[in-house]
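I hope you will forgive my troubling you with a question about protein structure. I should value your view on which stretches of the chain appear to form regular backbone elements. Here, with my thanks, is the record as I have it:
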Amino acid sequence: MRYLPCRGWLMLLLLAESMLAHAVDIQIQGLFRDMAILQVDGSRYTLRPGESTPQGIILIRADSEQAVLEIDGQRETYPLGSQISTVYSRPEMAEAVIYRRNGMYFGSGSINRQSVSFIVDTGASAISMNEAQARRLGLDFRVIGDPVRVSTANGIVRAYKVTLDRVKVGDIQLNNVTGIVHQGGSPPTILLGMSFLGQLDMQRDGERLVLKKKW
């Protein structure tokens, strides 16, 4: 058996560390209400709250004066023009696996830290729920929501557009996701729509639907 000299072990340790951490330079080039323009290692990204760069830098919220960014799990507030040099751990590829039952993909997760069951519905523009489900999640939709009219299988119905602070399915968590609260008892099961799914890669594998977060 061959043994590596101390220098060889040191090189391996440095290589392993470099795979887990990465130095990054960030500049905040533009700030608007609910939008920020970042330059990360020379590449420009326009982010809405809850969206992230390929490096895993998440915009939590923004206005014309400052932005709250989450970098490597830490949230900090930065004014316009800030230049940030940091080292962060490379994010693992978060994913969720949902199984088909009776021709539909049923799953479970959480909304605002409350457990929910849902049906994957790529035909729904947003995460959709009925009044009772919204109340169970603590959503005072008549106060915080914007009245809208949405098209359903039963025709045009009144609803409320809300922002869901946190939606988690499997290892995937997205913040500030658009939701729709329908008046009445439909839909009977929460629909996991495109306001969540549209930010992910979706792959069908037999009876499984694999969701992967885009970094």
User: Anything to note?
Assistant: The radius of gyration is 21 Å.
